[in-house]
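Dear H.,

Thanks for agreeing to be a second pair of eyes. The structure we're designing against is below in token form, covering all 277 positions.
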């Protein structure tokens, strides 16, 4: 997408909008996700595209994925708002500085918070994409994640257990920690042995975080006090997350059975499995 002209991108957007409008496909909201997850890699190109969208007169709601650094670019945020973007899906990943260091990330908790606040200060929503299962993660990671989301008014979340992609250096370094290689179950389930928490407990943390964020109490609040897209999206995600939790719960029995399995890399974790300490 970054090699295309801004005019070509605008034409593509118009065709996507027309596809739905002409067929009168029923939708609760009119929004479009710009799917290039490297949209902001070339800043000048991104600015040109946003200006072209504004100049085209398109009146639509857009969302887009971005790294947290975009939250420090005031010019970009103003253009996003003026072009009709209402939300940025931010790859927050972790909330712990130790996790960022462990995975050689330059991010920090304080920078994530500053970025979120600045994006929101420009009238844009933030959707959080999170990863759990870092070696520093312990019991309570789900509560910490949910509290962060609620406290900082994160618009919606995707919580992904850590996994390693075959053919990458990180996979080679961690393949002995995989629980199995049944790729059909690499859909949010815990699939590796973390250092400081059992796979079973980590799966429960994910379920707990989802339930706390998408609670019935927050659903009622969204229905009666939410506005526009925010209300529609929360209602939809409430039921989607319930479906995801049901799927994760079905894996719990299998993960529980691993607590007697000593094929675990950490002696400390083996002790946890056997004695429940």
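And this is the sequence the design step returned. I haven't edited it by hand at all.
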């Amino acid at each position: 997408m970054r090699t295309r002209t801004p005019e070509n991108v605008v034409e593509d957007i118009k065709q996507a909008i027309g596809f739905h409008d002409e067929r009168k496909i029923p939708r609760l909201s009119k929004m479009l996700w710009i799917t290039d997850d490297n949209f902001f890699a070339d800043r000048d190109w991104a600015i040109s595209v946003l200006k072209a969208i504004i100049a085209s007169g398109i009146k639509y709601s857009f969302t887009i994925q971005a790294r947290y650094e975009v939250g420090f670019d005031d010019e970009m945020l103003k253009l996003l708002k003026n072009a009709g973007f209402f939300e940025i899906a931010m790859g927050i990943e972790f909330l712990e500085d130790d996790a960022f260091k462990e995975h050689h990330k330059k991010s920090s908790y304080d920078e994530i918070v500053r970025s979120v606040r600045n994006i929101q200060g420009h009238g844009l929503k933030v959707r959080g994409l999170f990863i759990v299962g870092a070696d520093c993660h312990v019991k309570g990671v789900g509560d910490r994640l949910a509290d962060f989301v609620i406290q900082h008014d994160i618009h919606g979340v995707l919580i992904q257990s850590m996994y390693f992609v075959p053919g990458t250096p990180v996979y080679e370094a961690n393949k002995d920690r995989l629980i199995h290689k049944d790729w059909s179950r690499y859909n949010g389930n815990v699939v590796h042995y973390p250092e400081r928490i059992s796979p079973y407990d980590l799966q429960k943390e994910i379920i707990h975080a989802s339930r706390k964020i998408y609670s019935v109490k927050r659903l009622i609040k969204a229905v009666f006090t939410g506005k526009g897209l925010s209300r529609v999206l929360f209602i939809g995600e409430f039921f989607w997350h319930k479906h995801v939790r049901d799927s994760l719960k079905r894996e719990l029995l299998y993960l529980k059975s691993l607590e007697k399995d000593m094929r675990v890399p950490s002696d400390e974790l083996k002790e946890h499995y056997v004695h429940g300490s």
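Two observations from my side: The first strand starts at residue 31 and ends at 34. The CA atoms of residues 92 and 170 lie 19 Å apart.

Warmly,
E.
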